[in-house]
Amino acid sequence: HMDEYEFENLTIDQHGPLAVLTLNRPKALNALNSATFGEMSEALDLIVDNAEIGALIITGAGEKAFVAGADISELNGLDGVYAGREVALAGQDVMSQISNLPIPVIAAINGFALGGGFELALACDIRVASPRARLGLPEVTLGVIPGFGGTQRLPRLIGAGRALDLLLTARQISAEEALQMGVVNYLADEPLAKAREVAESIVKNGPIAISLVKEAVRRGLDTTLDAGCEIEADLFGMAVATADFQEGTGAFLAKRKPEFKGE
Ligand code: CAA
């Protein structure tokens, strides 16, 4: 069972088909250092290998922060082009591991989501934020730039104009403003509870279809409309070849609830 695994900087809990990964480094407001990235990668492998898990929620321990960014004391020790590039690539790998998961991933943003913390939320599929959360990309105030996908995922999500405003001014935005911008999907006083509710509404659906939707959107964002539509047609064909498709359409016609088996 997943709860048995011991990590230093995070916990993973399983609630039926839902897994919750909680970043937990209270002394640094859950900031991401290299040890935490290593543990996240291991935890994600465990989650993806567990066939019972249909959705993942990522959140931060405590009241104050989701994740306050990359660990600045670790960054401060970096020296030279190669060391910097390696840190960015290592963080990006974990962010891609998240966005490539075949199950939906929901960020429950319980407080500050700054720098790498904002980038972590952007690697998730859906974002739920506490009204008390604050989001921002303060990297330029530190003389650096986002390195965990922020300059790429944010403009894809909200457009280059709004992304550049946040990237260049480094201003913090409220959860309310993030909602208006389309950075977050939902505001909720209890973001973890709301994230669970959203996850429950997803795991009722066909799991293969869910993973194919994620793949279609992800691959489509990397290409032209025509090529993306071709990808969509290929994946549509794969969906149509599943037993879940027979079950879903058959259940509709028989006026009953479908029972998807992920086959
Ligand atoms: N890395 C390391 N330690 C951090 C940290 C971080 N990103 N964020 C906070 N901490 C530590 C603080 O140093 C402090 O430690 P001490 O108690 O030992 O002094 C502790 O967490 C509590 O933080 P504060 O005292 O600063 O708390 P606050 O309420 O005054 O402020 C905050 C909260 C606004 C979030 C502030 O902590 C802050 O600005 N943090 C840094 C945010 C930031 O710049 N993140 C971007 C990092 S760069 C990045 O992410 C690069 C990338 O993309 C690759």
Automatic annotation (TrEMBL):
GO MF, any single term: hydro-lyase activity
UniProt key word Lyase: yes
CDD domains listed in its UniProt record: crotonase-like
The protein's name in its UniProt record: Enoyl-CoA hydratase
Organism: Deinococcus cavernae
Family annotation (Gene3D superfamilies): 2-enoyl-CoA Hydratase, Chain A, domain 1, Lyase 2-enoyl-coa Hydratase, Chain A, domain 2
Keywords: Lyase
InterPro entries cross-referenced by the UniProt entry: ClpP/crotonase-like_dom_sf (IPR029045), Enoyl-CoA_hyd/isom_CS (IPR018376), Enoyl-CoA_hydra/iso (IPR001753), Enoyl-CoA_hydra_C (IPR014748)
Similarity comment: family membership: Belongs to the enoyl-CoA hydratase/isomerase family.
Keyword Lyase: yes
One record GO biological process: fatty acid beta-oxidation
